[in-house]
Amino acid sequence: MILTGTPTRTYNEAVARRATAAAEAMYSSVLLPCIRYSADAKKLYEDECPLPILLPNSAPSADCRKVTTHLGFTDLAV
């Protein structure tokens, strides 16, 4: 299971915190690394632009690399 849009230091809404905590409690055995919320990522997604190309060093790009590495895709340039 992948959680996206999880809380950050600046995006810390109560609903997101509760949902993340509940998912971690219920699905910890199958939970992959979380992908943090990013307003930039949201806009790029809406514009159908690949995040790793425009913001390769952003937190969500780093989080996506963690997920792909965890899944065994070590040769991907995500």
Molecular structure report:
The protein has 78 residues and is mainly α. The chain has 4 helices and 2 strands. It has helices at residues 14-27, 39-46, 51-54, 59-70; strands spanning 4-6, 35-36. The chain has a two-stranded parallel ribbon with strand order 1-2. Helix 1 (14-27) links the parallel strand 1 (4-6) and strand 2 (35-36). The longest helix is centred in the first third of the chain and has 14 residues, at 14-27. The chain is flat.
Principal-axes geometry comes out as: flat
Strand element count: 2
> How far apart are the termini?
19 Å
* Overall residue-averaged pLDDT value: 85
| Overall SS class | mainly alpha
Report the radius of gyration as a whole number of Å: 13 Å
What strand line-up does the widest sheet have? 1-2
In this structure, how is the largest beta sheet organized?
2 strands, parallel
Number of helices: 4
Order of helices and strands: EHEHHH
Helix content: 40-55%
Sheet-strand content, in percent, reads: 5-15%
Spans of 5+ residues with little confidence (pLDDT < 50)?
Answer: none
